[in-house]
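ESCALATION

Customer reports they have been waiting on this structure for their group meeting. Please prioritize. Original submission:
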Amino acid sequence: MFLKILIMSIIISSSMLIFDFNKTSDISDWKVVNDVVMGGRSTSEFYLNEQGHGVFTGAVSLENNGGFSFLRYRFNEKNIKDFKKVIIKLKGDGKEYQFRVKSNKYNQESYKKVFKTTGDWQTIEILLSDLQPTFRGQKLNIPNFTSNKLEEIGFLIANKKNESFALIINKIVLE
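Update from on-call: job pushed to the front of the queue and completed.
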């Protein structure tokens, strides 16, 4: 009976760390993609601050049909069949962002969920099944995210206005 309870508590409390930012984190696999790939003029950067948090900051410009900045993290395939949600500890600037995932980094479509930041530290919880399919800003007529694998996550800002932004990320975990 004790072993059964122990196993159940391990299953219930199990999580998968995607990224935990700290002063010694290797962020070389985190890449910024701005709308300049399509002729836009948005700018952004990603770095570790003095506390060791990841900072995604910049300015979105609508000039020349632009309007987005994207931060992505690609990694070797992770089996996520036992996980139902992503939990992100972050601090935003009061703006809306999209959290995005891809089951295969080469897929054209990604799956997104919009969340609003408050300006304070927040814990954002997103059910994987709530991630909606999208391609180039258009919702696709296919089911929400159902994959058992993951190869890319990201944060996108694209609020259809000229604006500066700053998103500070502490930790990303699957539960």
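Sent to customer with the following note: The helical segments are 2-13.
Escalation resolved.
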